[in-house]
Amino acid sequence: MHEPLAVGPADVADVRGFLAASDLTVAGLDDPGVRLWVVRDDSGAVVGSTGFERSADGRHALLRSVAVAPTLRGSGAGTRLAAFALTAAAGVGVERAWLFSRRSGPFWQGLGFESADRAALAAVLGATTQVALFRATGQLDREVAWSRPL
Length: 150
What we know:
Distance between the termini: 25 Å
Radius of gyration: 14 Å
Largest sheet: 7 strands, mixed
Strand content: 25-35%
C-alpha cells in the first residue's frame, strides 16, 4: 500500500465516491477544517482514506473517513490508516480522539478506543461538520461513540 497523501480539491470527488461506496459519511469533505488523506493504487484508484476534524479548542479530534477497499481488508491497511490519522492529530496538539462507529467496534477497540458517551462527543465536537449533520438529521441518536486519549 502506498503512503497516504493529503487530499486536495481535485481529489474530493474521488474520495466522496470511495466513501459513499464504503457507506461512510461524505458531508463536509471539502470543508477547510476537515483534514483528509488518501491512498491510491498504481492505476490512480482510491483504495484507502483517513482523516479527522478538530474541535474549536484543538484538544479533540473526530476521526472520520477511515476506509480501505475490499481487496485490502484484513491486510492491516485500515490499522495503518487509522494510526496515521491519530499520529497526525497528536502532532497538531490533539489530546483525545473520538469517532462514531456502529459496525466496527472490535476494530476500534483493538486500537485502544473505548465506548464513549455520544453526548460528550457532541459537546466537545459540536462545531464539526459530521456532528452538525448528525444533529440536523437525527442520526446522532442512533450513533455509537468511541474515544481514546492520544
